[in-house]
Specification:
Layout lengths: L1 E5 L2 H23 L2 E5 L6 H7 L13 E5 L1 E3 L9 H10 L18 H16 L8 E4 L24 E6 L4 E6 L1 H5 L3 E6 L5 H9 L17 E6 L10
Parallel strand pairs: 1-9, 2-3, 2-5, 5-8, 8-9
Antiparallel strand pairs: 4-7, 6-7
Helix pairs in contact: 1-2, 2-3
Bound molecules: 6-phosphogluconic acid (6PG).
6-phosphogluconic acid (6PG) binds next to strand 4.
């Protein structure tokens, strides 16, 4: 596990953008394509915009990349809170990514069917029931959730790689999410976490008591995981 802490969120995002490009170039060189599960929420938007911007857009063979979503809000794709919608606006459309390279959750189905359908599409794409993404991008909620692995939810108990529907009582909404075993299959996992509002969650994940039911990001395995953070988010961690 590598904890990269920068003075500002902009620096963290720029280094993660370079990491994304390098990981993609390595995978495309070795396997001919790169599979990435994008994270949602607000933090990654600036990363996606940077990747689609003049500094990085010519550094990757974008038509060799398949885009997936580590979790999705159970809303229409056109909804302002859709993770797919955010990635479409900030990354996929600006790079003219073809539809056949984009694997979004079909939220027109009932929640459990949407999860089963997505899981089957992953199994079909990777031709295995243990899909191994080249890269899974993650964020961290201020309650130490990641993807849609929320505290106290049944998805936290799952032991086989898969996708599940998660009822999030606190938000009174459904989510569709990779479970921890699926995330942990990835060759590379990268967290992007910045801002003082994440400091307590970072402390719980890095140095709090071992309680994944309360702090679900603790489920994400340590090796092959790189954190890209700013000083505000790591302010409560012991000085390294
Ligand atoms: C989501 C994300 C979620 C997110 C964290 C952090 O759908 O919301 O997948 O896990 O990464 O909640 O969100 P922010 O980046 O908005 O703080």
């Amino acid at each position: 596990m590598t904890l990269n802490t920068f003075g500002t969120r902009e620096e963290a995002i720029a280094v993660l953008a370079r990491y994304f490009v390098q990981t993609a170039q390595d995978a495309i060189r070795e396997d001919g394509f790169f599979s990435v599960a994008l994270s949602g929420g607000s933090s990654p938007r600036a990363l996606y915009e940077m990747l689609a911007g003049s500094q990085f857009r010519d550094k990757v063979i974008w038509n060799r990349i398949c885009f997936f979503f580590g979790d999705e809000r159970y809303v229409p794709a056109t909804d302002a809170t859709s993770n797919y919608g955010m990635a479409k606006a900030s990354l996929l459309d600006p790079l003219s990514i073809a539809q056949e390279q984009i694997f979004r959750v079909d939220t027109s189905l009932p929640p459990e069917d949407a999860a089963d359908n997505y899981q089957q599409r992953l199994f079909d794409f990777f031709k295995t029931e243990e899909p191994r993404f080249d890269l899974v991008l993650l964020g961290l909620g201020d309650n130490a959730h990641t993807a849609s692995l929320f505290p106290g939810t049944s998805i936290l108990q799952e032991t086989k790689p898969g996708v599940s529907a998660v009822w999030v009582e606190a938000k009174q909404t459904w989510r569709i999410s990779f479970n921890a075993p699926l995330i942990n299959e990835a060759r590379h996992i990268a967290f992007l976490v910045f801002g003082p509002e994440k400091a307590a969650a970072m402390q719980h994940v890095f140095s709090g008591d071992n309680n994944a039911n309360l702090y679900p990001a603790q489920l994400i395995r340590k090796e092959h995981t790189a954190w890209f953070t700013d000083e505000a988010a790591t302010a409560l961690l012991p000085a390294s």
